[in-house]
Amino acid sequence: MRIFSATVLFVVFCSVLARGASPQQASPPQAVPAKPDPASGKLIFERHCSLCHGIDGGGGRGPSLRRPKLSHVADEQSLKGLIENGYPPEMPPAWFLTEEELKNTAAYVFGLGSVPQEKIAGDPAQGRQLYARNGCSSCHRIEGQGSSFAPDLSDVGARRGAAHLRETLRNPAKTMPEDFLLVEAVTTSGQAIRGIRLNEDTFTIQLKDSQSRFYSFRKSELRDLKKLRGETPMPAYASVLSETELDDLIAFLASQRGKP
Fold first, then answer.
1. Which stretches of 99-223 are DSSP H helices?
2. Is there a common fold for 38-114 and 182-228?
3. CATH annotation of 38-114
4. Which of 22, 98, 175, 202 is the most buried (most CB within 10 A)?
5. Does the pTM of the predicted model rise above 0.85?
6. Domain 124-174+234-254, what architecture?
C-alpha cells in the first residue's frame, strides 16, 4: 500500500511538472535598425538644403559639401546632430525632420565626400596672373598675402563650387552673403567713410574700410549714415574678362583648398 501511494504521488508530481513546465518563451526578435537610405536623403537635401549648398552640394550661399572632411563634424552621427540643431546664425535647425529623415540626409551628405572633384576648364597658372593683374589682393587674402577687407580666399576652392565662383565673378551682387552690408558714414566734419559693417546696435556702428582700418561711431554723432544695400565694392568681371579668362581665374580660385 505504501509502495502504491508513493507511486501515485510520483505520477501526480510528474503530471504537475508536465503541465507547469512550458518551453522557454523566445524573446521577441529585436528590431534591426534600418540602414540609412542616401537616395531618400538626396530628395530631402534637394528640397531643404540645396538653396544654400547647391543642388549637387557644390556650394552656394553655404559651403561646398563635396569634400572628404567637413567642418564641425567627424562622422554621420555628428552630422545628423548638426543638421537637426543647425549652426547659428548661418544654418537653421531642421527640427521638422524625423529621426529617419535626419539619418538619410546625413548619409547622403556624408557620401558627397567621395564624389570625384569636378573638372574645371582653365589654366590655374594663367588665373594666378589674372588675379594679380586685376588687383584682387587689394581686397582679398590668400595664404596670408593681401588685404583682409574682403573674405579670405585661401580655401575658397573647398568652400565654393565652380558655378558659384563664376556667378560671383560675373555678378557679385547676386551672391552676396545675407549679412553683408556696405555702409557710408559721414562725420560731423564732413568726412565720408565707406566700409563693411562689422557690428551694429541701437546706438553704435563699427566699420572696416578698404585699407582694413576699423572705425566705431556713435550714431548720434554722425551727420549721415547710409546703408548701401545691394551694393558691393567688388566689380563685375563679366564685362572685363573674356570667357577664357574667367575659366582661368576660376581654375586658380578652385585650386585654393587650404591646408590639408
1. 99-111, 124-133, 156-159, 162-170
2. no
3. 1.10.760.10
4. 175
5. no
6. Orthogonal Bundle (1.10)
